[in-house]
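agent> fetching stored inputs for the magnesium ion docking request
agent> found them:
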Amino acid sequence: MRASRFFISTLKEAPSDAEIVSHQLMMRAGMIKRLGSGIYTYMPMGLKVIRKVEAIVREEMNHAGAIELLMPLVQPAELWQETGRWDKMGPELLRVKDRHGRDFAIQPTSEEVITDVVRSEIKSYRQIPLNFYHIQTKFRDERRPRFGLMRGREFTMKDAYSFDRDLEGMQKSYKIMFDAYTRIFTRFGLKFRAVAADNGAIGGTGSHEFHVIASTGEDALVYCPTSDYAANMEAAEAVATGARAAAGAALAKTSTPKASKCEDVAKLLGIDLKQTVKTIALTADKEDGSKQHFMLLLRGDHELNEIKASKVPGLAQNRFSTEAEILEVYGCKPGYLGPIGAKGPVTVVADRTVALMSDFVTGANEEDFHFTGANWGRDMAEPALVADLRNVVEGDASPDGKGVLAIERGIEVGHVFQLGTAYSESMQATFLDENQKPAPLQMGCYGIGITRILGAAIEQNFDDKGIIWPASLAPFELVLCPMGMDRSELVKAETEKLYNAALEAGIDVILDDRGQRPGAMFADWELIGVPHRVVIGERGLKEGNLEYQGRRDTEATAVPVAEALAFIK
Ligand code: ATP
Ligand code: MG
Ligand code: MG
Ligand code: MG
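agent> prediction call returned; pasting tokens
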């Protein structure tokens, strides 16, 4: 590819609504363009990465014996009514009517359609096991679309569905997919962790999530460094025992708000105020002009300046505006600042944060100042908060008894799920066994967030210059940067030679023939995150050399012309 014939559009500054690094860098690198809330055009540079993700997914799915088809985006409501999901899904399901007034869903996944396909196609045990997949646009009307491709409303997912005759077969299919996912995320070159995502009801392996490890991740992962135990926070909490769980259960029973002092709250939670709790007060301006005050109790070792330093978009530091804004930014009710999303240092804090609504005026950020007089706010008995209070914390004993727990943050990029017969029973998808007896098909479903991978990969791989793509996902593997191609015949000739050799070697190469000055040219490719760069200059050529620099290298290395490509491969 020649840069002059491709589309490159980079920005110095990210738009102000881009809160996290991946969103900022993807916007700056011209990979995506916002059309509406959670809806993006994949620009040529971004689409190149998406296609690489898809290619790896496709290869490994095919290799694992899954079969590709393509199911419609627009799906008749009747199918969704059969399984009850038409009602159950609520506002996340986008519904449209056609000209005849018939209802349709824009697919958020495709269990119904694939089950419908299979119930009419599969008659006999001889035709299974089967695993169908597609890579298709999804729409979920997310309550808080944000972070660019990370939580879009329109996004691309690979979703697969397996069909087996019995539980054993289904678990085998599940294992095959689990292993395929492990290969896929390894090939992406990302640090990831598979965690149990259910409470162990189905033999402890009913569902796993695959997370890319990143401090900005929305999910807390609980794992034991000295054993195989790994679960998402919800699953870990479900099996947690001890004081915190008991406190959470006690709170769950508190259906009416009750006044209590921080000391009492701390006691209930088993928190030692003196050792582990810091308090912070935040002031919110309500729409009616009055102020509302929040107090946070922080469990764990947190620096208050971590919170001061963090920036919440749209809000002044340490000042939360209207109730509506709090709801908008945090998706939680005023008085509750529990699981705050990915907000840099706050995220870490939030994991351990208990928020109390206080009814007195306070000065913000005064450590150990607000221990008394706090009320349980009216929202304190909300299930979300109770869940937060039941947090498993670092240092707790691992449920397998093989060590203590550690916690890290992750971005959910894949999810495998043993569905059993829930869909096949409600939709009567059966097969005939050897004795001509009908039985419901055992299903599994398996998703990968294709477009979310881009954001997750960047959250894990960037520096102050821009994105650092793992080689397998980079839009281009190699960029050739000639110095003065229009002035020097030698440079021009050598560049063309190298470009053709790279193409022949099967390297995804881009030749920057835009005639830009070196500084601007290098800045672009560092921002875009191409892993290998070769600079072709007259001075070097006269000594028989080119300049090679890997994206993570701090300086360029002179390499003999003949060895330039070998150096890359
Ligand atoms: P989340 O917990 O982040 O809302 P989910 O559990 O609802 O995700 P699944 O139904 O398990 O998502 O879908 C499979 C995969 O699709 C997820 O693991 C994720 O990678 C991706 N995905 C889900 N929602 C979105 C979204 N709004 N934008 C981009 N990717 C998404
Ligand atoms: Mg979701
Ligand atoms: Mg999830
Ligand atoms: Mg999921």
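agent> quick read of the result: The pocket of adenosine-5'-triphosphate (ligand 1) is lined by residues 140, 142, 151-152, 155, 157, 412-415, 447, 449, 451-452 (CB under 6 Å).
agent> awaiting further instructions
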